[in-house]
Specification:
By secondary structure, the chain is of the alpha+beta class. The chain folds into two domains: 12-149, Jelly Rolls; 163-346, Sandwich (Jelly Rolls), CATH 2.60.120.10. It has helices at 12-24, 34-41, 93-98, 119-128, 130-149, 163-168, 170-180, 183-187, 193-200, 250-255, 276-280, 284-303, 306-310, 327-346, and strands at residues 45-49, 54-56, 64-70, 73-77, 80-85, 90-91, 105-108, 112-118, 202-206, 211-213, 221-227, 229-234, 237-243, 262-265, 269-275. The strands form four sheets. It has a four-stranded antiparallel sheet with strand order 1-8-3-6. A four-stranded antiparallel sheet has the order 2-7-4-5, with no helix packed on it. A four-stranded antiparallel sheet has the order 10-14-12-13. Helix 1 (12-24) crosses helix 2.
Amino acid sequence: MGKILANEVASDADAESLLLNARSHSVYLAGMDQRDLTRLAAHLSILSFSVGQRVLQKGQDASWVGIVLSGTLSALVEQQVVGTMAAGAFVGEIAFFTGGVRLADVDGASEGYIATMAHDNLTSLFASSTHTACKLVRALGRSALSQLATNPSVHKPLEWDDGAATAAHSASVEKWAAELLDPDEVEGLEEGDMQTLTSSVRVKTFSAGERVLDRYAKSDALYFVLRGRVGLDLNGARLGQAEAGEPLQDLRFFDGGLFPNDAIGLTDGVLGGIEAEAIESLPPSIAMAMLRKVGSAAVDGVRSGMLERAAVVGGDVAISRAAPRDEGEREAARLDAAGAAAEQLST
């Protein structure tokens, strides 16, 4: 066991400089401007840590929250590393809201600095600068929810079928690829380009009733239905469905947010997908055509308000996730959804 962290080492000026470094690495601190960092620095203790040094002890009362300013920390349970925290990451943010004791040890994985703030000091920050304090607490909450929502032990990433299974569904993959590109785009391909696309696709067979995609699971892939039908569910309500050839993760792929709903198999079927790294390795013309087509579906889906129209309180309105192709179809879809909503509310 390493030595428990105890040494304060930095002035307010050093604190601001280190906070600037942390902000450059953190999506949670990005909303903090220079004035916020100056106010925040006055309420922080800046401590150094070394490799193997114990920063946080399992079983200790949760009395402070921290920000990694530089270096890397490791979280350990029963001496096994279960996570790492680099510059810009918060430490102890979940316990800040829930109280209790620390659930894991945290040791230095490298040399670095951490800013700590006792919970009582946050009360003082509220008294001196409510605006900055609210920004900090909202950032802590965002990080806490993200940590819980993306916990890989609870929300497991999709496990693709093996190569043999992928080969067995090659006909479905080729059909999807042919429908993805316009005829003139296909004619402009060089020999072997289409094979490059189809070989980049991975598949996952699913059964009716199976949760195909967990909306909280980490992912950086583009999903589409190769065969069968998939329901889009949120907290037990059916928001829509996707059929063969339709994308599943178009919004999340572009906005970087969590998949907005679970995907549940309505029939037996096959899911296809291409990882982001594989997309970057495709022939440029194919990558551009694919991303533009999927992006168009995402934009049309938002414009037509498909998910919002389906969110009838207590309802189970099933609509297609595919975006209408033209204004006439959009208007028909709007009328259909309005009628379905009215019927649902009248029963």
